[in-house]
């Protein structure tokens, strides 16, 4: 955890509940003050094929959405910047709309087999595909992928490696096959999760 994560997340209300239920406030974290992605975070992000994205509406309601793609579709551009291609979905545009009024977001990335979870807090910017720079498009677009509509850029504010206590292990077909687990024939699905 960067110290900045606690500065953002541990609001007065949170600290009051820490005192009430834990008998004390959570101590200051000894981690770095700045949120800079190191090799551990970069490798973890590059291996993920999905994440959960939370935004907040203009009326204050949270919205959580799942985003998925091939491993590494969420690209680390530098120590504090990430990006991903945004594709057409249910045509509701809730996350994109929420980000217009409130550009802050939270992401949760999970490695289910290893029971590891990384939380990211970021300022997000939405670029229509034609408005994104060539370098940005080249960084996130993959040959053979469906046509993207937008590029989403995240400027990292803070991150935290979260407790693994209640992560239920889940395995993809590829992970089970690598372990030598025989699999019945299932209909083909993107990601092949069981």
UniProtKB/TrEMBL annotation:
Pfam families: PNPOx_N. Signal peptide: none annotated. Coiled coil: none annotated. InterPro entries: Pyridox_Oxase_N, Split_barrel_FMN-bd. Residues 42-127 form the Pyridoxamine 5'-phosphate oxidase N-terminal domain. PANTHER family: FAD-BINDING, PUTATIVE (AFU_ORTHOLOGUE AFUA_6G07600)-RELATED. This is Pyridoxamine 5'-phosphate oxidase.
């Amino acid at each position: 955890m960067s110290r900045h994560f606690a500065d953002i997340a541990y609001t007065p209300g949170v600290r009051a509940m820490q005192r009430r239920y834990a008998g004390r406030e959570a101590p200051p974290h000894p981690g770095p003050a700045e949120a800079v992605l190191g090799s551990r975070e970069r490798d973890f992000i590059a291996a993920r094929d999905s994440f959960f994205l939370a935004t907040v509406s203009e009326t204050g309601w949270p919205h959580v959405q799942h985003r998925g793609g091939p491993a590494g579709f969420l690209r680390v551009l530098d120590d504090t910047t990430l990006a991903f291609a945004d594709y057409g979905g249910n045509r509701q545009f809730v996350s994109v709309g929420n980000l217009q009024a409130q550009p802050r977001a939270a992401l949760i990335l999970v490695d289910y087999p290893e029971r590891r979870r990384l939380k990211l807090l970021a300022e997000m910017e939405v670029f229509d595909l034609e408005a994104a720079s060539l370098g940005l498009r080249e960084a996130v677009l993959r040959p053979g992928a469906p046509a993207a509509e937008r590029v989403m850029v995240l400027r990292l504010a803070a991150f935290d490696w979260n407790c693994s206590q209640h992560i239920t292990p889940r395995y993809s077909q590829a992970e089970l096959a690598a372990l030598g687990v025989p699999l019945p024939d299932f209909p083909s699905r993107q990601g092949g999760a069981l």
